[in-house]
Description:
Strand content: under 5%
Distance between the termini: 80 Å
Family: Belongs to the binding-protein-dependent transport system permease family.
Organism: Streptomyces hirsutus
Region (Disordered): 1-29
Protein name: Sugar ABC transporter permease
Membrane topology: Multi-pass membrane protein
Amino acid sequence: MTTQTKSAPPAAGPRKGPRRRPPAPSATTVGRPGFAWALPAAVFFALFAIVPLIMVAVLSFMSWDGIGSPQFVGTDNWSRLMDDPVMLESIWLTLLLTVLGVVIQTPLSIVLGVWAAGHQRNRAVLSVIYFIPLLLSATAVSVLWRALLDPNFGIPADATWLFGDGNLFGEQATAIGVLAFVSTWQFTPFHTLIYQGAARAVPQVLYQAAEIDGAGRYRQFFHITLPQLRNSMITSMILMIVGGLTTFETVLILTQGGPGTDTTISAYYMYDKAFKGFDFGAGSAIALALVVAATIISLIVVRVSGYDKMRSTMEGVS
Length: 318
């Protein structure tokens, strides 16, 4: 009787499962674009921003009437401007108009932007009409309001019960009020657009949770919407500050710095010195001072507000 031996089963080898695809490269693993991609923009910025700024800085230490060769005078232009009462008054007026623009336009833009981000009836049509001033240039807006506020045939001439003699450009207080109003009318739609986009980006789950907790519309606005608009608010304020420090066309067309020098802001005084008085050295010094002031104030706002350390408030974004 023979016995049959069963052969041992073959050794089990590694099982071959479905082949996995390699993970797709994420944004962190993909290399950043090379410097060559930014070279055209860098060259454009250098030619039309950096180089002219350097030339203005050099010219601020020169005496030049636009004819002949500039003569180096050191800090003479700067010392004359520091002793110039019109220059000192123009700095105060520039700061005043800038503060008025921020104080008036910020709350108005927030309210309109949040409203435009909703789903009200006829919201789209009203928003389009409201944004029309944003499509016009500062020159066109200034010419328009100069005609509308003309004391002889404009609105003040037909409403003497409200405007008195109708000459809104004859006194400093009313002239400054006109400048602040025209700037608000033109630039509020731009900042409203910023807040509209930011309000639409607020996560809806925040409002849903607030409704569950019994929070009304006003509490949602002050405790959810406003905190979520903080980044946009700081961006808008920086743009307002820089725009206020460099305003020129509005003053040139509406008041021409008058009456007298009561509305002569720094940007207009730069134009008056350089292109009316042919003192391009002093005009360059004012221009350089405006650039430095706008940069410093913007950096202070960013630093104090902590804007440079902020993170996105969007869901899922760290």
